[in-house]
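Narrative summary of target 7.
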Amino acid sequence: MHIVDLSRLTDRVVGRILTEQAAHAGDARWLMSDDRVVTFGEARDAVSRIAASLAGFGVGRGDVVAVHMDASIDLVLAGIGASELGARFAPMSTDYHGEFLSRNIAASTAEVLVTDARLAGQYASLADLGRVRHLVVAGKADLDPLRRPGLAVHDFEELLTNEPIALPSVAAHDDVLMMWWSSGTTGAPKGIMQTHAGLMRSASYWIRDRDVREDEVWYSCLPMYLGGAYTTALWPSLVSGTAVGIDASLSVSRFWDRVRHYRATQIFTLGAMHMFLMQAPERPDDRDNSVRCAVPVPLPWSQVPRFKERFGIPDVQQAYGQSEVPCRIFAAPDDGTPWRDNAIGRPVPWLDVRLVDENDEDVPVGEVGEIIVRPKEPNLLFAGYFNAPDVTARTWRNLWHHTGDLARAEPDGQYFFADRKKDYIRYKGRNISMVEVEAVVAGHPEVAEVAAFGRQSAELESEAELALAVVARAGASLVAEELARFINDHAPYYFVPRYIEIVDDLPRNAQFKTDKVALRSRPLADGAWDRDLAGFEVSR
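Modeled conformation, tokenized:
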């Protein structure tokens, strides 16, 4: 283990950190996936080769390299290779297809896109590739159907076998390292730009708070088109010179087998992942694992003792952050504090944190206010929304980042999550934009009006089930299950709602807008369609 000193702002650059780790212990394992192991030295060499190849494609400082891949070692190497040129890599959701995928590609402005064999086939029929001129495919795939005029198709191995060119790293600490796509704070998905300095500093804080030791192994089965896999596992492993095990997805039945396979000591689970683990049938070997520290976000504190006892984990922490603030906003360490259910911790010391009303004035202790933050050191938070300066300015009004989330503080210093101001819901770790769901449903020829909203999840207090209230066109015979199938065919699978209510009209507020507070608070109507009760099979 070698924890890189990041006290100097200008040293917080991914390529420099990887170079230092390779020089310190080039033969030490870093990236692991199944039985594949890549050392720090091998990663440094591969990144240099990939950077040289991308430079040959015309990639330079400020450009975007889109990445549409399952979580993998190749994804990590491709992303860091792009960053060596001062470019930023932009992972895209592997659940996107058709129009959604085309829209994301176009929004990224990327001219180079890296995908993998599992996802490559759809590019043969994808009409709009935006500005993409180079398509790179990792893994064994038939490349011929992907070729078309104006598009060069490459095997990922070509990037690794090319001779590395001595390229001076042009990346700086305040360059954008990567951007992931999220619902942000205003509803419509947008690119959240994260700098080298912000993500590396965030990693150093995670290392500090998780008592990292010599034999540390981080484990992630989170998708790598979201920030969690990077901020809670990949980047901390890089900065600390320790290993990380990467799986493409969560398997509840095999989770602890995978932990044992990697001999993982650090785990992070998001949304309902840990609830699924606790609901799984108990096994005699539940405690037979090497995990020392777990961060299940969020887990009711009343259930933490059971979680610790069943899985034999001594240190269980929690935290609250968001895609725009990867360094966390609140932290709840396992330090003997009698945390109460729904507590998200105390403000972290590297941020100023306030709870405010609609005029940005502080609310009294015990009252609910919006969480707003600003950093105490430079380049710590996100660098804005990609190609959306107006949205960035609104979010940063009065020189504070407005999270769009509500909380309250209690006299003993504990903070409690209250609600979300944003027009999205959180479902199984994803932020789902109601604006986009409604746009898809409105495309059905028999739909006149639609309101998408969340109903409280029975599994997890902080998450919601997607529900629709739909008004049919006059004379139409709209069937809920047919509408669900339409959504499944035209959008990511998680846009298929749990509930569909076909109603005569939608409730309105004083501004004649749909009153979603009223929709959320009223009981489910008799005869409402329930995806689970209907046995509807969602196609992914």
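The mean pLDDT is 93.
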